Amino acid sequence: MKQIMAAAPLSLLIFASANAAPLYAGLQIGDNSAGALFGYQINKMYAVEGHYSKSDSRISHSGVSVDTSIVGTGLVGLALFPLRLNEVLPYFLFAKAGYEHTANNEAYSIPTSVTLTLPYNDNIKSSKNQLILGGGAEYDFSKNIMGRMGIDFVGNNKYINLGAIYKF
């Protein structure tokens, strides 16, 4: 699966350059994560997008610490609904659905003062494939630059994110 996710952006680039269709790339920040996205706009109504996101957090109390790292890669299809208000530049509402692979790594550290024996350190790794659904709005600041605000539902989790996108 990792090979498919790695090849998807390259395939989009080759296909788009052969068909002179618009590509875009952007940065996205969320609740506790940051990431990148790369997309191909099929027409005014549809796009395909790949994304990568990473989130790191640390919880520490009385010497016990848990470091969590989550990496997500996904591929989604977007349906865009163009809107226009008076003299305002066009904006779009969008809905998306697709697939996300999430890899979690949790590192636990418990010192001798808590265990009263030897210190305890361990890593727990897990991964899962999940459906991603979402929606939001995009605003064209110029011909090449747009902003995005959206919400994604991945498994049982909800993520609110902001993005800046450059159209090539």
Written overview of the protein:
There is one protein chain. The chain has 168 residues and is mainly beta. It has a single domain (2-167), classed as Porin (Beta Barrel). Helix content is 13%, strand content 68%. The protein has 2 helices and 8 strands; from the N terminus they run αβββββαβββ. It has helices at residues 2-19, 112-115, and strands at residues 23-30, 33-41, 46-61, 64-83, 91-110, 120-140, 145-154, 157-167. The protein has an 8-stranded antiparallel barrel. The longest helix has 18 residues, at 2-19. It is elongated and about 70 Å long. The protein starts with a helix and ends with a strand. The model is unreliable at 10-18 (pLDDT under 50).
Please summarize the sheet with the most strands. Answer: 8 strands, antiparallel, barrel
| Strand percentage | over 45%
Average predicted confidence as pLDDT: 85
Q: What is the overall silhouette?
A: elongated
Unreliable runs, pLDDT <50, ≥5 residues? 10-18
When the domains are counted, the total is: 1
Oligomer: single chain
Radius of gyration: 20 Å
Number of helices: 2
Main CATH class: Mainly Beta
